[in-house]
Fold this protein.
Amino acid sequence: MVNSSISIKECGGVYRPDDDTYLLIRSISIHEGERVLEVGCGTGIVAIHCARAGAVVDAVDIDPQAVDCARANIAANRVGVRVWRSDALENVDDEYDTIVWNLPYLPVSEKGSLALAWSGGEGGVEPLRRLLGQSPDRLRPGGRIIVVVSSRMDPDLLKTALEGWCITTIGEERLFFERLTVLELTPEVR
């Protein structure tokens, strides 16, 4: 459930919370003391929600403007969340119980800093492939990844990207032009 007491200031050039953001927040269940990393934190609303639910939260974003925006919103909401700049998990050294990412999923290849918030490249799955490739060393045993995917993504490329992961649907919403689904991914045990 979205905490209505969270106050978010939107910042120019930073992806503003939208239907996908609120679906993600409604879908996440967080446990007291859980270590959570939000990748691509934007305004910081998801990180704030997780911290308010009792998690120990870190947040990263590739865009320095988003890092500043998230820090300001986190301070205004009086929660303890560490925020720094990172391109996906490149500058992340810790391990987490949960990695959350409302990743770019539209099948377009636009350029520019704001386009990084929605441009998912070929088939809309390029950021997801990258995150899943970097994640195994950042997940604690029993850890999970929570991501939003769209019906606009290429289904065959999505299926290939998710190979090796156990998939649980934890949220879904139909919009007039797409279906958004929140997936919880855990590594397959071999």
User: Anything to note?
Assistant: The helical segments are 19-27, 45-52, 64-76, 126-134, 155-161.
